[in-house]
Task: structure prediction
Amino acid sequence: MSSDFEAYEQDFGTITAEVTNKIGRIPKLSGEEKTQLVLNVDKQLEEVRELLEQMDLEVREIPVQSRAMYNSRLKSYKQEVEKLEKDFKRSRIAYSDEVRNELLGDDVSSSENQLIKLREERAHLLDNTERLERSSRRLEAGYQIAVETEQVGQEILANLHTDREKIQRARERLRETDANLGKSSRILTGMLRRIIQNRVLVFVLGAFILLTIILAIYFNLRGH
Result:
């Protein structure tokens, strides 16, 4: 996998060197020639971005113990591409002294001021565009966080709903248990009452039999 990464590195170095050279030539050109060179550089920058994507995929396949070194190299390449893109944007609105004089003709002073003003406005517009892009990325990240937060909230609400149902079922079982305990208590109370009644009845019956025996013995002795 590292051999593939190094092959991409070689292609990256070759193309970025060509791009750097062409970016330096852009301000010296004008008209159709400049337009063609700008299109060519834009195409090569797209190729460079694709190479970065390929290198990023290769790094993910590299063993973890060796990945840090390649990640560091890939990060430096990304920073280099960002610098090239900024230089490319500036070169598209820049002109060399020769081209500026050719475009302005005799009225160099006033036209030069207008050109400087136009260049400043374009640079300002590019800066605003970059800020808008960064703001857009931040908004997208914020939206993603909001979506994830909403999903987490929904999961929490679902869990709370499930816990509430469990608590309600536990309360219902507790009420049923209390009702069963009440029934059992009433049954035990009735059984205890009957036991006491039976014992009293046995005691009265025993006393009655004992009294009958005593009276029978008494009358029997008295008859003799």
